[in-house]
Structure formats: C-alpha cells, structure tokens
C-alpha cells in the first residue's frame, strides 16, 4: 500500500512540474479582438505567444472564415476545412498538409486552456493575409474575397439580361503554377501548359486540340466553331454568347454566362460552362494538378425484354468497364466503371424479376470510379456486359443481340452476334418449310422479326423459347425448299451458312422461241392488303404493380387495356400484320422498357391503349394523343374512326409530351376511348361487345392510315 501511495505522489508531481514548464514558456498577449473583413470578433480565450510565435484559438474565428474543424479519431489528427482548401495537422507536429501538399512549420499547433491553438504562420501559408498591431489582429481570406466578387459580377449580368437562363456552374479549383496541369479523359492526357488563363474567377482553356484528341471533329468557319461526332453537334460563336446543340436529332439553344475569347488566333473556352454544355462531369485531383472528365450515369433501370430481365445503365457518354469480380462476404459480383460519376438518385434497384440477381447497388468508389454491385441468392456466372451508345446492357448466360446477313454467289450467310459459349442445334421441317435453330443457355435481345431484303427467305422470327433453362429460338421461314445448312460457332457469334438444294435432272427439251418477260419483284406491301408484313407494336398500358385508374376499388384500367390490346392483335394478325405486344399478361413494365421494345423491333407504328379518368365524373368522350410531327396523321385516322364508331363526344386529337410518345422512333399514338370515371361510359366499357367495337375501330383507323400512304 505504501508503494502505491509513493507511486501516485511521484506521478502527480511529474504532471504538475511539466504543466509549470509549459505554462512558463506560454505568454498571454494583449490582443483581445480579431477583425475579419468588416466584422470585429472578441476572443473568448486570449491569443498566446510562445518562443516569439503568435498563436490564435482557431474555434473562436472559424465561423467568420467559413470553415470547420474536424477531429479524425483513427489518425489522431485534425482537419481545418475552408472553401477551396483543407489543412490537415497534428498537435505538436511541425508537418502539415495543405490541399494534399506537405508543408513544414517553424512552430507546431498546440493545446492550451482546453483549446486548439494554431500559429499565425499556418494561416499565412494557406492564402490568408494577416495584419498585426499591438492590441488587434486583422485576418483576410483571399478565397472569400474572390467568391464575393464573382457573385457581384453574376448579379450585374442577371439584372441586365433577365430573360436569359443561366447555367448552374460547378466550382473549379485554381491550378497551381508550380506543378504541371492537365485535362484527362480515358487515360488520354492533355497538358495545359501555356493553354489556359484566368479572367477574374473564370478559367479559360484552349479546348479545340483536346476535343480533337478524344475523337471529336472540328470545323472552323468565320466567327463560328463546330465540334461534332456522329450523333451530336455543338456550334459555338466567337462574337455572340449563344451555343446551339443537336444531340440525337434533339436541338437546343444555350446561353452560357461567359463568351469565348480569341487570343493570338486561338480560341479559349470558359471551362466550367463548356463542360456542362457537353454534359460531362469532372473530378479535381490536387495531387497531380489535373481535371478528369467523367461520363454522367443518368439512370439505372431494369428492362424486362421479352420476359428476360436486362439491367440498363444509361449514360451521357461512352462507359469503360473493368472485368467483373466476385463479392467476398456475399453471393454476387461487382465491376467498376472508370471515368464516370453518378448523376442519379436511383442508386439501388430491388425486385428485378431475375432468377440470378436480386438487387443492384451503385456507389462512388473514388474521384473517377463508380462501382456496380450485383447481389444474388446463390452463386452466379459472369454477366454479359454490352456497350451501347447510351451506356451499358447487362445480362447473364450467353447473349445474342443482332442478326447480320451477307450473300456470296450461291452462299447465304447469317451471323448472329453476341457473347458465348453457344450450344446450337439445327433442324428443318418440310411442311411448312422452315429452319429452326435452338441455342441453349442463351438470352436474346435480337429483333423479334426480320423481313427479307434478299429474297432468300420470307422472314426470320426470334423468341425466348424457354426460361428454365434459357433457350433462344430462331425460325427462318422459306417459300420453297429449305436449303442445306451448316453452322460455325465462336465466342462472339454463330454463323449459319445456307446453300440451295441442287435440282433433280430433267430430260432436256428443245428451246422454244419465246420472248422472255421481265421479272417483276414482289412488292412487300400493297394497297389491297395494306397491313400485310407490317410490324405493329401494341402497348397495353399500365400492368402489374401499376393498376392505372381504379373505380369502386375493384375495376382496374390495366385489365381493360390488356383485353382491348389482345382483341386488336387478333384483328391485325388476321390481315397479315406482325404484331408485337408490350405485355400479354398482368405484369409490370417500365415506360423505358416499352419504348425500348418498339424501337428494337423496328416497328412501323406503335399504338398505346389506355382508358381515361378524371376527378369529376362529368368528364366524358374520346380523345387520342400524339407528340412528334409524324405521329399526327396516325392519331388523326384513329381518332376519326373512334368518334365515328363509338358515337361518343369527340374530344379531338391532342399533343402531349408523354414519355412513350417522345421516346419511340416510329409514328405513335396513345388512345383514350372512354372515361372510366364517367358512370355511363364505364357501363359501356364493362361490355365485351363494346370493347370489341373499340378494337375494331382502332384496327380500321390503322388500316386507313396505311392506305393513305403513297
């Protein structure tokens, strides 16, 4: 016990002595206030002086400097965060980090009186101006000053031109002149030495050589520059502040906040607004003094294509994907998308309807990488990731996405492109003459129908024949004898080679003199049979979790839509049309999935079937919607026939910015024949005879539309 008491007394005296030593070296200064800008702040704890170095209690002035102090438990260090830069330090350590760059100090930060004190020298090294007098201290932040001036300039411009819509500009950091700076995109580096300057707070860069390096075409004209690719065009003017863009036939006019500047016959672009017009994200790296251009991931969605789920990752620019890896602690896979940034709130998708994948998650991995994780209930094979113009398509098993046709002399070649391995079986039937190709453990997104352009066959039909296991079936219909077939497979395609069957020898007859009649090619379409060989996409609105309009808690719009769609399908197919349905049963399907199906199959027209509703039961009548200019004639023919046959109030043809009409490439119309919420019209709708009348009327409107075509 006596030993324990003596040890405790020794430790107590040791701490008191060290405290006296520290206190003896610290001196309070007469500085009681600090002025920051125009505001005067009284210090709660006095400024201190140690070894001729002045220390300031940082927490007392943080608010006025627009900063915050963060303690990092793992490293036992602090981070001072100000707009545009960060200071990292440890108490009693001379080494500090300013924006990732190591800086050495003559006096370290310290603890005193329960507060964190930093030396004034640290503020001067981080772009703060410090002016000291006997009783006061003045601190000014150069970063804060720049921000305020830029705001004033922006306000002046908005007052002058109130009608112009300004772009929301992301903040760009200042380049350090001590380090070489660059722009980076997909491992292509563009040095910026002598190719940029600042005008106020705006960074101007000579971007034309950079755009040319990453694959854009540059066209210079008088007072105008055009930057273009196959699918997009950006037109800039040197003497007026306007930019015209054309992306996938969609035209738009932009008014950026800053003009182009021409210096020494070189054109400099305001970097921030230009990146936004081109729809690029960016990431700033202080370590290598570089800006990385990133493709924006706009959405992640599940598309149920022919009862086979696909995961679509939509993006503004091409995406670069790393090889897939297996998750460590759970069943599933992950892969990284380099040079990308998430620009969507849909970072998680559940209930995919996929046997193998139950959930998809996306997260930011680092400055320029997005990680996609695919979770499953059991072990899963590597997915097939296909790059498209709009991003990525992800599926599993083997994958077939397209059909190509070629002809060499008597040899006809069909190439089915995708990703293997492929297990192929081929068989022929004589009556009717057709070739059947089955590919086991294979998913298809090939068009459901392909019409002949060579005359070798009538048509090709594809389908997801089975789901357990997945079997893709392709059927080739012929008019005469089925040719001899051989096939070759690789990891990326299946090649079917067809040669005609040699004709049996017949006794030769003496040639008769007769004039040979010119061979007339069969017309694919005719006015007497306007629907024959037409591909018509019929969309039954809503379905699954989405009931559409509901009346009396038991009558659902989705049920009526599907019934009318099936009746219309039977009428169209009876006249030789090829009908593709968005759904044939009560299941959920996104709007993107519907337009994707219609576009993929290169449909001639699309008709979307809906039933109208309104908050007031007085609303009644028939109406048809369109959006694109080429939609209007189809919508007019259908509406005219509906009004004639149903004998209800004619609400006319209306233009509406509906998703399925905007995103379909073919002439499209959306019909609303009656109001469910109107008692009289709902009574009519309950009758199967009336629903058949609606289907017959739409069928006749479609027929009239094709007859009117030259």
Short description:
By secondary structure, the protein is α+β, with helices and mostly antiparallel strands.
Topology:
Layout: H1 2-25, E1 26-28, E2 33-36, E3 39-42, E4 48-50, E5 53-57, H2 58-61, E6 68-72, E7 77-82, E8 85-89, E9 95-98, E10 101-104, E11 110-112, E12 115-119, H3 120-125, E13 128-132, E14 136-141, H4 142-160, E15 182-185, E16 188-191, E17 196-199, E18 202-205, H5 208-213, E19 217-221, E20 224-228, E21 232-237, E22 243-247, E23 250-254, E24 261-263, E25 266-270, H6 271-277, E26 280-285, E27 290-305, E28 308-315, E29 320-321, E30 325-326, E31 332-338, E32 340-342, E33 348-350, E34 359-366, E35 369-375, E36 384-388, E37 391-395, E38 398-408, E39 411-419, E40 423-429, E41 434-440, E42 442-444, E43 449-451, E44 459-467, E45 470-477, E46 484-489, E47 493-499, E48 535-540, E49 550-551, E50 555-556, H7 557-574, E51 578-581, H8 591-600, E52 605-609, E53 622-626, H9 632-646, E54 650-655, H10 659-662, E55 668-672, H11 679-685, H12 688-708
Parallel strand pairs: 2-14, 15-27, 27-32, 38-42, 48-51, 48-52, 52-55, 53-54
Antiparallel strand pairs: 1-4, 2-3, 4-5, 5-12, 6-7, 7-8, 8-9, 9-10, 11-12, 13-14, 15-16, 17-18, 18-25, 19-20, 20-21, 21-22, 22-23, 24-25, 26-27, 27-28, 28-37, 29-31, 30-31, 31-35, 33-34, 34-35, 36-37, 38-39, 39-47, 40-41, 41-45, 43-44, 44-45, 46-47, 49-50, 53-55
Helix pairs in contact: 7-12, 9-12
Walk me through what this model shows.
The chain has 710 residues and is α+β, with helices and mostly antiparallel strands. It folds into 5 domains: 26-143, Copper amine oxidase-like, N-terminal domain (Copper Amine Oxidase, Chain A, domain 1); 182-278, Copper amine oxidase-like, N-terminal domain (Copper Amine Oxidase, Chain A, domain 1); 291-395, Immunoglobulin-like; 398-499, Immunoglobulin-like (Sandwich); 535-708, Aminopeptidase (3-Layer(aba) Sandwich), CATH 3.40.630.40. Helices cover 20% and strands 41% of the residues. Strands 15, 16, 26, 27, 28, 32, 36 and 37 form an 8-stranded mixed sheet that branches. Strands 29, 30, 31, 33, 34 and 35 form a 6-stranded antiparallel sheet that branches. A 6-stranded mixed sheet has the order 51-48-52-55-53-54, covered by helices on one side. α7 packs across α12 (688-708). The longest helix is centred in the first third of the chain and has 24 residues, at 2-25. It is elongated and about 105 Å long. The model is unreliable at 7-24, 142-170 and 513-523 (pLDDT under 50).
């Amino acid at each position: 016990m006596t030993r324990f008491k003596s040890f405790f007394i020794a430790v107590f005296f040791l701490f008191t002595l060290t405290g006296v030593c520290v206190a003896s070296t610290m001196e309070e200064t007469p500085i009681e206030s600090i002025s920051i800008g125009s505001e005067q702040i009284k210090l709660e704890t006095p400024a201190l002086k140690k070894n001729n170095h002045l220390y300031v209690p940082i927490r007392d002035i943080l608010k006025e400097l627009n900063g915050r102090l963060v303690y990092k438990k793992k490293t036992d260090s602090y981070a001072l965060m100000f707009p545009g830069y960060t200071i990292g330090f440890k108490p009693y350590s001379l080494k500090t980090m300013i924006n990732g760059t190591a800086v050495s100090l003559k006096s370290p930060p310290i603890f005193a009186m329960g507060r964190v004190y930093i030396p004034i020298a640290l503020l001067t090294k981080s772009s703060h101006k410090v002016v000291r007098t006997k009783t006061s201290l003045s601190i000014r932040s150069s970063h804060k000053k720049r921000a305020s001036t830029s705001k004033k300039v922006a306000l002046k411009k908005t007052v002058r031109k109130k009608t112009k819509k300004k772009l929301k500009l992301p903040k760009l950091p200042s380049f350090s002149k001590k380090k070489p700076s660059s722009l980076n995109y997909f491992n292509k580096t563009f040095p910026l030495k002598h190719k940029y300057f600042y005008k106020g707070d705006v960074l101007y860069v000579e971007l034309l050589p950079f755009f040319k390096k990453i694959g854009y075409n540059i066209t210079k004209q008088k007072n105008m520059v055009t930057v273009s690719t196959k699918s997009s065009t950006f037109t800039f003017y040197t003497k007026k502040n306007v930019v015209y863009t054309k992306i996938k036939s969609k035209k738009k006019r932009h008014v950026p906040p800053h003009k182009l500047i021409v210096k020494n016959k070189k054109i400099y672009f305001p970097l921030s607004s230009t990146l936004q017009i081109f729809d690029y994200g960016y990431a700033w790296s202080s370590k290598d003094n570089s800006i990385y251009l990133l493709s924006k991931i706009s959405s992640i969605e599940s598309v149920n294509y022919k009862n086979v789920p696909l995961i679509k990752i939509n993006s503004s620019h091409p995406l670069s994907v790393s090889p897939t890896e297996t998750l460590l602690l759970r069943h599933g896979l992950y892969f990284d998308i380099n040079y990308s940034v998430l620009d969507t709130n849909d970072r998680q998708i559940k209930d995919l309807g996929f046997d193998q994948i139950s959930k998809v998650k996306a997260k930011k991995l680092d400055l320029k990488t997005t990680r996609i994780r695919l979770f499953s209930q059991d072990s899963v094979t590597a997915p097939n990731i296909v790059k498209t113009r709009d991003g990525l398509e992800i599926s599993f098993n083997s994958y077939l996405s397209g059909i190509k046709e070629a002809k060499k002399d008597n040899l006809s070649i069909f190439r089915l492109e995708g990703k293997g391995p492929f297990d192929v079986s081929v068989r022929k039937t004589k009556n009717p003459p057709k070739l059947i190709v089955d590919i086991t453990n294979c998913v298809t997104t090939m068009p459901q129908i392909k019409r002949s352009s060579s005359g070798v066959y009538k048509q090709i039909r594809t389908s997801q024949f089975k789901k357990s296991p997945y079997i893709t079936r392709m059927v080739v219909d012929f008019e005469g004898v089925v040719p001899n077939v051989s096939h070759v497979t690789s990891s990326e395609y299946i090649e079917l080679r067809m040669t005609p069957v040699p004709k049996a020898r017949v006794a030769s007859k003496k040639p008769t003199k007769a004039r040979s009649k010119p061979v007339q090619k069969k017309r694919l379409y005719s006015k007497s049979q306007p629907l024959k060989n037409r591909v018509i996409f019929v969309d039954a609105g809503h379905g699954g979790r989405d009931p559409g309009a509901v009346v009396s808690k038991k009558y659902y719009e989705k049920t009526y839509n599907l019934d009318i769609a099936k009746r219309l399908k039977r009428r169209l197919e009876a006249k030789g049309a090829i009908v593709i349905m968005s759904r044939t049963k009560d299941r959920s399907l996104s709007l993107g999935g519907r337009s994707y199906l219609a576009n993929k199959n290169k449909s001639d027209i699309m008709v979307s079937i809906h039933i109208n509703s309104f908050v007031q039961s007085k609303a009644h009548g028939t109406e048809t919607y369109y959006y694109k200019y080429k939609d209007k004639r189809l919508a007019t023919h259908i509406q005219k026939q509906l009004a004639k046959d149903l004998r209800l109030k004619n609400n006319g043809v209306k233009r509406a910015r509906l998703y399925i009409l905007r995103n379909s490439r073919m002439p499209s119309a959306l019909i609303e024949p009656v109001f469910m919420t109107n008692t009289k019209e709902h009574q009519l709708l309950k009758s199967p005879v009336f629903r058949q009348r609606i289907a017959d009327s739409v069928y006749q409107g479609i027929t009239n539309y094709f007859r009117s075509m030259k």
